[in-house]
Amino acid sequence: MGSGKYQNGTPVPAARKLAGLFTKEDTFNIHKTFGLGCLLHFLYRFAFLGTPDMNFSGSYETLGCVLWHFALSTSSLIFRIPTKRIAEGSRIWPEYRLHSIVFACRSIACMLVMWAEHRFAVAKPLLEVNAIIVVATLIAADLSTWWVGPSGRSSTIQELDAPPAMRYFFSVMQFHATAGCLVGVRRFSTQFFYVWIIQFTAFLMTLRRKNLAPHGPLVVGYGIMLTAGFCISTYDHYINGQWLLVNTLANAAAALRLGGRINKYVLWAGLGVALQALRPLMVVPDNDPHIAVKVGAWLVTVGMIVRIGARKIARDYAAPSAQPAEKPVAKAR
Fold first, then answer.
1. Fewest CB within a 10 Å sphere: which of 15, 133, 163, 182?
2. How many domains does the chain have?
């Protein structure tokens, strides 16, 4: 038996490879129905990027759409998948599946908080709930790792077959996603883009598992999605005067975790507390007289990220045989 494009030395027809997406576990095509609906929903919302905030609101239509994405992630549990990750790292394994659900639910929960604020005309944003969601996500991710056991675990980024600089970029962007949830800018599009990255990446990894897509382009595609998500998040925070706040916080978190190995619970709980004091100081109003100081603080954190990245790429990633391997810390942010 062969794999990929050939079977027994004969090319596998495209129709037969596509048929591999239909499995016995999903007899009634429940997961695929959710997937198709989510794909169409993504396309619809992307048509309203920018000021309209993807046309989300406090309507029950928005609530139903958000819960549809929750159903897509959780319905993936019906499938049986390999218990171990393959060497290239671009196919779904048990820990990744659970983490994918957990982190998709993190952004979905943030969206539901905003929906409730809109629906019930809450006077003040429930920003404390965002901090609770972030910490709860860390706990859920750790419980997921414990649940699958040693055989089903793998560092999502560190053990991915990709260039060192790309892996480092992926790690830093994950800290930006967590900071985006913690800061809690009241824009649906930031969190919805995070959901798109997570769910569409899982779909691409399914295609890889069925040999319908090569590894390299999938990794590049993931990088493009992260870059797009960063741009959308920056725009949403910029129009609310919080772009310096979220980027400074994210860079500081990445530097402390990747460079200082700070415990993730201590890190995010501490930053959550600090955020309460920093938020009014780091918001950028029109004609802000302190903008130079705020930009300077941000540049300091950028320099920290660049310095740590250069060291890791040169020492820990590019020449692993010459140095002891560091314990991966970029699993659950």
1. 15
2. 1
